[in-house]
Amino acid sequence: MTIGERIKELRKKKDLTQEKVADFLCVSYQAVSKWECGLSSPDLALIIPLARLLGVTTDELLGATPVESDTQREALEAAYKKTFETGDIYDRIRVSEEAVRALPGDMRWLNRFAWDVWSNAIDTEINYPEAFEIEREKAIKLFDTVIQNTDEDGEKAHAVTGIVQCLCGKGQKDEARKYVELYPETKVDPFQKKHLLSMCMSGDEQLRFVQRCLHDKLYDLIEALVWDGLWDRATACAAAEGVLKAMIPDENYLDHHYAMSHVQFRKAELAAGAGRTDEALELLKDAMYHAEEYDRIDTGHPGVYTYTAPLFKGLTLDSRQWCHTGTGTLADDLAFMSRREVFDGLREHPAFLEIFG
């Protein structure tokens, strides 16, 4: 049996196509076909990687001396890490390509190689456009191989990010969007998939999508500052108020009236606790104003409202779709919270009675 016949037999036992063998070894499909047909033989440098890919010893395949896998991996890892100290991208590509050939089927190394190729291509785009196109196509093929063959969410997410960048740069946004759908939902980075999806859009669709993502991030930030139990309540409230005012400078807060109401109420608690009566009353007045504005949008006149602040201009929300957990209003909630002990000294004050009745 010739080496080509042996390769073909072992390949089929491993349920590998010629294309996959070619991808894992970074050779052409035609090269694998010629080996199996007996028209040529694998390069000597490919014998050990090919034996590992096919699950046999090199003795079984050709008789070469085996290399200890763990020792080789450690050496490659050390050499690769060293390139980040020197900044030598060409040496980095050399090491990652060597690893891909030595450890065929290792998706982590193949992903590294893809990113190294793509990163280097970006640096050549202006001065060497033709070379850039060739390297980008190479990176796309490598990323796709990782995506189609890895079971590790982190590697797949990283490869999807790379191929989306490549395809969007080519203007192939519809194709890129198909890959975005392959981004693992379990990956711990809830906004990365949205970021990739926005890259695949253009015009008004992209603008509205980015605005919506920014709006969602604002919600998360305000929630962390106001409701997630930060020990420094004064600083947290000041930060939340500052962010809201900076992002919505025209004070058309819409659904964010809810957060502003709670921010002012918490500041009022702090002021009352410190004996700053006049300040506390002003803050309670502001809190009730925002609560009533929120209630007007939520239950008074529910419908479609539009932001006018520059960052969100034109973004709409429909208060008819808001979720409710009770029949009371935000103003009712504030009135209930005003019974807290910290406000006992204000309870008979005319301004307090005017606010809460």
Can you give me a brief rundown of this structure?
The chain has 357 residues and is mainly alpha-helical. It is 67% helix and 2% strand.
Topology record:
Layout (H helix, E strand, L loop, with lengths): L2 H11 L4 H8 L3 H9 L9 H8 L3 H4 L7 H18 L2 H14 L4 H18 L4 H21 L3 H17 L3 H8 L11 H8 L3 H24 L6 H15 L9 H17 L3 H24 L3 E3 L9 E3 L11 H8 L12 H7 L1
Antiparallel strand pairs: 1-2
Helix pairs in contact: 1-3, 2-3, 6-7, 7-8, 8-9, 8-10, 9-10, 10-11, 10-12, 11-12, 12-13, 13-14, 14-15, 15-16
Notes on the structure:
The protein is mainly α and 357 residues long. It is 67% helix and 2% strand. It has helices at residues 3-13, 18-25, 29-37, 47-54, 58-61, 69-86, 89-102, 107-124, 129-149, 153-169, 173-180, 192-199, 203-226, 233-247, 257-273, 277-300, 330-337, 350-356; strands at 304-306, 316-318. A two-stranded antiparallel sheet has the order 1-2. Helix 7 packs antiparallel against helix 8, helix 8 packs antiparallel against helix 9 and helix 15 packs antiparallel against helix 16 (277-300). The protein is elongated, with a radius of gyration of 31 Å. Mean pLDDT is 91; it is low at 63-67.
